Amino acid sequence: WLAKYAIKVREKAALSPLTGKVIAIGVSGIYEEEVWTSTNKNDERMVLEAFCGHLAGHSRSTQARLAGFNVREFDIPFLIGRFLVHDLFPVGFPRKGKDWQNVVDLRDSVPDGSLDQWALAMGIGRKTFKSDGVWELDEAQIDEQVSNDVVLTRTIMRRLNPMPRNQEPYDL
């Protein structure tokens, strides 16, 4: 039982901003086709700095509008923790907990199921690889996984939010 418990603890450690690390980030404008990614299994700071630079170069206002699948509960708090560890913070990134006016989370519309399950149900594709154990993939595979996740999320978001007239698009 101790060996099984140790495995569970190790698996959860990757999901904590105190013990986990960012190995890849992917971003796309909701109405754009290009996907930007940064992947590095050995240098988290490089990934985070690249993301900070990307947001600074594409920020349409002082507060970035962000969207994603489960970003409110996981991605944004995790990234905030990792930014703090590295003394970094991108321009426009949410800094206060529960300050979500510029964050759109698909989980608000589809509370049950995973991104992979929703993409499959909608007939728009599947995740490239299984999500658990992504750190065991090589960097090209991780980059492919992250890019595909962004495309799946963007496609669902487009179905929920067709391109509005005279409104600035937001990033995933």
The secondary-structure class comes to: mainly alpha
Low-confidence region ranges:
none
Oligomer: single chain
Proportion of helical residues: 40-55%
**Widest beta sheet: strand line-up:** 1-2
In sequence order, what are the helices and strands, one letter per element? HEEHEHEHH
Shape by Cα distribution:
globular
Task: Estimate the strand proportion.
Answer: 5-15%
Count of DSSP E strands?
4
Main β sheet profile: 2 strands, antiparallel
The helix count comes to 5
How would you describe what is shown here?
It is built from five helices and four strands; from the N terminus they run H-E-E-H-E-H-E-H-H. The chain has 172 residues and is mainly alpha-helical. A two-stranded antiparallel sheet has the order 1-2. The protein has a two-stranded parallel sheet with strand order 3-4. A hairpin with an 8-residue loop joins strand 1 (24-27) and strand 2. The model has no long low-confidence stretch (mean pLDDT 83).
Can I get a quick summary?
The chain is mainly α.
Topology:
Layout: H1 2-13, E1 24-27, E2 36-39, H2 44-58, E3 66-68, H3 71-86, E4 103-105, H4 115-122, H5 139-160
Parallel strand pairs: 3-4
Antiparallel strand pairs: 1-2
Task: Based on the model shown, name its key terms.
172 residues; mainly alpha; two-stranded antiparallel ribbon; 5 helices; 8% strand
